[in-house]
């Protein structure tokens, strides 16, 4: 059984998510806005948070930013807005998935279970440290530095980057990256991968050149 915090100002949305979550054996706590969600997270811990973007008092993005200051609980955002900008903003804040309303409750639960599975089953990297010029990747500590300065990445950026670095020089298809980083049971589209690659290149600065686009295939991390 997992503890889920559902944050949405619409009673109907909270109820339907709670119904499906309870059916699968999860325990659900509800919050009606971002402020309430922050207060609850300061008192309790959860396995995953499902949070709407547009809410009174404090929107979901702002609440996510505050929650991320003290915990890395996986977060799935819900929104009626499906524009790329909103998705990118959410991923930059460290969310794990972005679901556009209206959504299928059954599919949402499948996404929840997929995120929980990845969160609980993360493997410790076999390598310790990778170095290339002034780029240093410490797998164990989950720290990436460029020119001695630590680079802040979202949890999913770390997973994607670590996987690519550990497979340096290997052409990785889009399907391979999605299945290895998001899981075979990922229900999003491959634009999620492109969005994270874009964010990753932005984080790496001058070393963004190491992520090579293989047109029609996927990507490769290379230092040549």
UniProtKB/TrEMBL annotation:
Coiled coil: none annotated. Keywords: DNA-binding, Phosphoprotein, Transcription, Transcription regulation, Two-component regulatory system. One of its GO terms (cellular component) is cytosol. Residues 127-223 bind DNA. CDD domains: REC_OmpR (cd17574), trans_reg_C (cd00383). The keyword Phosphoprotein applies. Residues 127-223 form the OmpR/PhoB-type domain. One of its GO terms (molecular function) is phosphorelay response regulator activity. The modification 4-aspartylphosphate is found at residue 52. GO terms for biological process: regulation of DNA-templated transcription. The keyword Repeat does not apply. May play the central regulatory role in sporulation. It may be an element of the effector pathway responsible for the activation of sporulation genes in response to nutritional stress. Spo0A may act in concert with spo0H (a sigma factor) to control the expression of some genes that are critical to the sporulation process. This is Stage 0 sporulation protein A homolog. It comes from Ruminococcus bovis. The lineage of its organism: Bacteria, Bacillati, Bacillota, Clostridia, Eubacteriales.
